[in-house]
From TrEMBL:
Occurrences of domain GOLD (ranges): 51-202
Lineage: Eukaryota, Metazoa, Chordata, Craniata, Vertebrata
Name under which the protein is recorded: Transmembrane emp24 domain-containing protein 10
Subcellular location: Endoplasmic reticulum membrane; Membrane
Chain's gene name: TMED10
Membrane topology: Single-pass type I membrane protein
Key word Membrane present: yes
Record-linked PROSITE patterns: GOLD
Family assignment from sequence similarity: Belongs to the EMP24/GP25L family.
Keyword DNA damage: no
GO CC terms in record: endoplasmic reticulum membrane
Keywords of this entry: Endoplasmic reticulum, Membrane, Signal, Transmembrane, Transmembrane helix
Coiled coil: none
Pfam name, any one: EMP24_GP25L
């Protein structure tokens, strides 16, 4: 009996260790996959005297960083503007070739990064300009190396902090989705009630109009002595 109890305790401890290791491995894989997928920069071609914009919805109080690089062009210059939906300029560069920018959002909004090419008049055919833009926000934009130096964190503590921030961002995303779902449900219910009231009002109007037509025609025919 004592041997069986010891064996059960050892097996339960081994299972707990395996579960913890699997959970840590799964969390690390998910984090690595998300960071690898989000680390891919966006590249596109900007034609001469053209304009291209990229938009993205970002939550409130979120750090946003960006790094851009444009290929060289013999003449002309390119502009970069980062604005919100209200038109407030968060970053501007009239002669954009290569650089970085960063800002923190004050409210949930749609942010826009626009590249615009300006060529002097009389310029002949010019090849398109290659633009590479790498924007990150939230956990992706946090520099954990600097954070580890400032707070003197160990590598394991840095990974735990990263996982904590990632889980918090996921929870916030789910909370926002739940809030939007509640708002959409309330909107659908209010719209349904309005349609129901409008349908009832339309039916009452039609019934009233039909009744009035019957009495009017009856009075008209009596006046013409067509019916008694």
């Amino acid at each position: 009996m004592a041997r069986r109890r010891r064996w059960r305790r050892r097996s339960s401890r081994a299972r707990a260790r395996e579960l913890r290791g699997a959970a840590m491995s799964l969390g690390g894989c998910l984090l690595s996959l998300q960071l690898c997928c989000s680390a891919l920069a966006i590249s596109f071609h900007l034609p001469a005297n053209g304009r291209k914009c990229l938009r993205e919805e970002i939550h409130k109080n979120v750090l946003v960083t960006g790094e851009y690089e444009l290929s060289e062009r013999p003449s002309g210059r390119s502009k970069l503007r980062v604005t919100d939906s209200a038109g407030h300029i968060l970053y501007a560069r009239d002669d954009a070739s290569k650089g970085k920018f960063a800002f923190t959002t004050e409210d949930y909004d749609v942010f826009e990064a626009c590249f615009e090419s300006k060529m002097p008049p009389g310029t002949g055919r010019v090849p398109d300009q290659l633009v590479i833009l790498d924007m990150k926000h939230g956990v992706e934009a946090t520099n954990y190396e600097e954070l580890a130096k400032v707070e003197k964190l160990k590598p394991l503590e840095v990974e735990l902090r990263r996982l904590e921030d990632l889980s918090e961002s996921i929870v916030n995303d789910f909370a926002y989705m739940k809030k939007r779902e509640e708002e959409m449900r309330d909107t659908n219910e209010s719209t349904h009630l309005r349609v129901l009231y409008f349908s009832f009002f339309s039916m009452c109007c039609l019934i009233g109009l039909a009744t009035w037509q019957v009495f009017y025609l009856r009075h008209f025919f009596k006046a013409k002595k067509l019916i008694e």
